[in-house]
Amino acid sequence: MKIKSLEPFILHLPLTSASISDSTHSITHWGVVGVAITTTDGLTGYGFTGTHAHLASDRLITACIRDCYAPLLIGEDANDHQRIWTKLARHPSLQWVGRAGITHLALAAVDVAIWDLKSKKAGLPLWSYLGGARTERLEAYNTDIGWLSFSLDDLLSGSARAVEQDGFTRIKLKVGHDDPNVDVRRLESVRKRLGADIRIAIDGNGKWDLPTCQRFCEQARDLDIYWFEEPMWYDDVESHRLLARSSTIPVALGEQLYTVDAFRSFISAGAVAYVQPDVTRLGGVTEYIQVADLALAHRLPVVPHAGEMSQVHVHLSYWHPASTILEYIPWIKDHFEEPADVVGGVYKRPEQPGAGTTVLAESFARFGKSLA
Ligand SMILES: [Mg+2]
């Protein structure tokens, strides 16, 4: 299974709404930026990272794959995921310019493609290739009903639809208005509409500071918030440690962390309760496993962030013993041969060989962007 060729790609896929916003970002498309790797035995593996469909920076990722990584990969045995990962991530000249950011997002795409190849070669879905399913039932939580840009009416009707029609028992709502009282009132309305049995998590996308978060948590303490995700700036370990100590609402984070070392800093400080790795920001499946094992060693639950909209994480969550529930955002699933589908609030277990990353040919044709 020698690597014969690599073909980077950029797709910009429309969302389920015309546009959405959280406290920090406003987008109209999700970027699927990655690489198809073909081997001498005729297999093709697909891997990608997730972006905000910003073409200029997407092209930096594909340029890194094409110009920096491809020459290191041609002729390598695609079975050797760890050797390949180390060769790319610890290449002295590339390590010098990026242990995070563009080079790491490009590494994620390559590594996921390698795992897609390995499990396709074995003829098994990735979860089975890794060692088998830990559960028969992987519960999903719905994020796509709770954007900050939604009016209160839309928030209420979307949440009710997710619970009453689609069978979700868990949802996540965005917070982060300039006035946190607005968020408290929105949460009170949704809690009142859905009742006490539905699990409601919230996500601040890193906007507020520590005193704002502490005041907000005090006001929201009776709303049974399942977790408070990314309450503050992504890299600020100490403020998250202080918030975790001062509030009864558990802290969740990890979607903006690039390395196992960053996760270790938060975990060892007691600054995170729900660990949220993402294969598209970490260096792929290889580094994701290191983070999930680290969480397991600390008896912390793993709830991945869906930067690949759960196409890969559905495999990892059915398999890894520290996994619990999994995020659901249905923006891109229908562009894959085997969509990460949810029925009655539960993820269907994938059955096709590979990592769930094989993009449909017609999606390449319709939504592909020029790499130039
Ligand atoms: Mg988030």
UniProtKB/TrEMBL annotation:
Pfam families, A to Z: MR_MLE_C (PF13378), MR_MLE_N (PF02746)
Keywords: Magnesium, Metal-binding
Residue spans crossing the bilayer: none
Keyword check for Transcription: no
GO process terms (BP): carbohydrate catabolic process
Cofactors, names only: Mg(2+)
InterPro entries membership: Enolase-like_C_sf, Enolase-like_N, Enolase_C-like, Mandelate_racemase_C, Mandelate_racemase_N_dom, RHMD-like
Domain called Mandelate racemase/muconate lactonizing enzyme C-terminal: residue spans: 152-250
One MF annotation (Gene Ontology) recorded for this entry: hydro-lyase activity
Coiled coil: none
Protein name: Mandelate racemase/muconate lactonizing enzyme family protein
